[in-house]
From TrEMBL, chain A:
Compartmental location: Cell membrane
InterPro entries: MetI-like, MetI-like_sf
PROSITE patterns on file: ABC_TM1 (PS50928)
Name this protein carries in UniProt: ABC transporter permease
Top-rank lineage group of the source organism: Bacteria
Organism: Streptomyces albipurpureus
A Pfam entry, by short name: BPD_transp_1
Keywords linked to the UniProt accession: Cell membrane, Membrane, Transmembrane, Transmembrane helix, Transport
Membrane topology category: Multi-pass membrane protein
Automatic annotation (TrEMBL), chain B:
One annotated GO molecular function: ATP binding
Protein's name in the database: ABC transporter ATP-binding protein
ABC transporter domain span: 21-247
Organism: Streptomyces albipurpureus
Positions in coiled-coil regions: none
Length: 300, 265
């Protein structure tokens, strides 16, 4: 009944002071409260479930080893894999191997970013370019990047350039396509509002189109990273050479050549862990920050 | 013309033209499924400096189209539109605030695009937020604001363009009645303080009479100016005032007549 009282009060004396009070009341009643989740809740709901899952998988793995479902050469015990980790760690090469691949992957990703972003903008904003290469660009996403390794080796030889070429061919289409779909989803109202404010041409692209397309762009980056990492591993496994230094892909290939199953398991786990870690540490927080800032992360 | 001149002096604005917007013999047609469709037919209308004009009409009368033409978002098929005060500011039914910016930064973007120096933007944005009585909302994100607050920030952003002409396209249509009523008071106050010219589109007769000095009724398909009323009721008015109600009844009758004509063929 409070609303009837305030409105009849406002009717009695429609002066500006009363209007201010009325408005303050409305604002207080309507304002949306947003709050962040406490840390304990995050731990319970977000951290505990994956930890339980990992523990269960390792337990199952150990159980299979104990049950002797297959010989130890095919399925090493978790402890054997742990031994190869500590061996590599003691030798001082573990971090070096991981860093060789991660630095290649990240540098390749940054290059893909520098090429994919302007390319995506061109495809999204210029009709002729979109008609010309839009379909090819989305088609390229479904081409496994391992297919690029043989031609890249022939063109560039067994070197780092070849690795970067494969990463670019894998990641650029994802990044460009993410940006294109981000731009396509920009509400036309934002563009109209921008135009009435004088944001046209490059100003409009910089102040309105790019920030409005950011959620789609970040989703494209996430996928672009996944493609970069996958392409790099394919390149490292196929094209291993002593000159290239020891990366995770070569580690896996060496394990196969030496019939060292714990080493193979170790390499696969490391590849998986690095992929997950980069996503969790870099891209997921970025995506969440973008969405939260826009009020798009709604809690049920 | 004398009327226009005195108003011009009263606002103290330096305009060489005696109008904030001049719409001359404007027609607009679009390509439709049945050939070209005439949406606006020979509209001629002046908005005087400092004047508040509402464009009233049923759906399909082309009132939003006309506003887009005045805003420069589209070009008339025939005729000309002049806005000597520069590019008009435009407010929409949806707030159209950018969700990646805070309320304050939304206003600062308009200032920046207008060419205001970086050092002055913050102060000016705070002043405009104070003007719409949202002094504490500078850091608020769009999704943290209520519908009425969003429209007030949108109004502040429109004012940041420092245009002499404010175009409003049913800006309060999506709000609840209590909030809309408060925003009417707010808009009247700000219009009188800033001495802006306002061209306000609505389909709500009472709203048109509550706000305007002049109500222009458009017929539908194609939109033509059917009739005009000068509203002599003193501001601040209230939507439930007897004089507002009386004129609204008269205008509604006329509007209904316009709508009925379409059922006859």
């Amino acid at each position: 009944m409070a609303s009837t009282e305030t409105s009849s009060e406002a009717k009695a004396k429609p002066d500006s002071h009363d209007l201010a009070g009325l408005e303050a009341g409305l604002d207080a009643l309507d304002a949306v409260q947003s709050h962040r989740t406490p840390v304990s809740e995050v731990l319970l709901k977000k951290v505990l479930p994956p930890v339980v899952a990992v523990v269960l998988v390792v337990a199952l793995w150990q159980a299979l080893v104990w049950a002797k479902v297959t010989d130890e050469g095919s399925l090493p015990a978790p402890s054997a894999v742990w031994d190869s980790v500590s061996k590599l760690w003691m030798a001082g090469t573990l971090l070096e191997v991981v860093w060789t691949s991660v630095s290649r992957g990240l540098l390749g990703f940054l290059l893909a970013l520098a090429i994919g972003t302007p390319l995506g903008l061109l495809v999204a904003r210029v009709k002729f370019v979109r008609a010309a290469i839009g379909p090819i660009l989305s088609g390229l996403q479904s081409l496994p990047s391992v297919a690029w390794v043989p031609p890249a080796v022939i063109w560039l030889g067994l070197n780092n350039q070849m690795m970067y070429a494969v990463i670019l061919l894998g990641a650029v289409p994802s990044i460009a396509n993410g940006l294109v779909s981000g731009v396509d989803q920009v509400p036309p109202l934002f563009l109209r509002a921008g135009r009435t404010m004088g944001a046209t041409g490059l100003k409009g692209t910089w102040h309105i189109v790019m920030p409005a397309a950011l959620p789609g762009y970040v989703a494209g980056l996430k996928q672009g990273w996944a493609f970069s990492w996958r392409s790099l591993m394919a390149a490292e496994i196929i094209a291993s050479s002593p000159d290239l230094g020891l990366g995770l892909g070569q580690l896996l290939e060496n394990g196969r050549n030496n019939a060292d199953m714990p080493g193979v398991f170790l390499a696969i786990l490391l590849i998986l862990l690095v992929g997950i870690a980069i996503d969790l540490l870099l891209f997921s927080p970025l995506e969440r920050a973008v969405l939260r800032g826009r009020g798009l992360l709604v809690k049920n | 013309m004398t009327n226009t001149l005195t108003k011009d002096q009263a606002t103290g604005r330096t305009t060489t033209a005696g109008y904030a917007a001049r719409i001359e013999h404007v027609s607009k047609s679009f390509a439709g499924p049945a050939g070209r469709q005439l949406v606006l037919d020979d509209i001629t209308l002046d908005v005087a400096p400092g004047e508040f004009v509402t464009l009233l009409g049923a759906s399909g009368c082309g009132k939003s189209t006309l506003l887009n033409l005045v805003a420069g978002l589209d070009k008339p098929s025939v005729g000309s539109i002049a806005t000597p005060g520069g590019r008009p500011a435009l407010m929409f039914q949806e707030h159209a605030l950018f969700p990646w910016l805070t309320a304050g930064k939304n206003i600062e973007l308009a200032l920046r695009l207008r060419g205001v120096a970086k050092t002055e933007r913050r102060t000016e944005a705070e002043r405009l937020l104070d003007l719409v009585r949202l002094g504490g909302a500078y850091r608020k994100r769009v999704h943290e604001l209520s519908g009425g607050m969003r429209q007030r920030v949108a109004l502040a952003r429109a004012l940041a363009q420092d245009s002499q002409l404010l175009l409003m396209d049913e800006p309060f249509a999506a709000l609840d009645a209590i909030t809309r009523d408060v925003l009417h008071d707010e808009l009247t106050r700000i219009w009188r303080e800033t001495q802006l010219s306002v061209l306000f589109v609505t389909h709500n007769v009472r709203e048109a009479v509550r706000l305007a000095e002049r109500v222009v009724l458009l017929s539908s398909r194609p939109g033509r100016i059917a009739r005009e009323w000068t509203v002599g009721i003193e501001q601040p008015r209230r939507i439930e005032d007897a004089a507002v109600a009386e004129l609204s009844v008269e205008i509604t009758e006329e509007l209904r007549g316009e709508i009925r004509r379409h059922g006859q063929h």
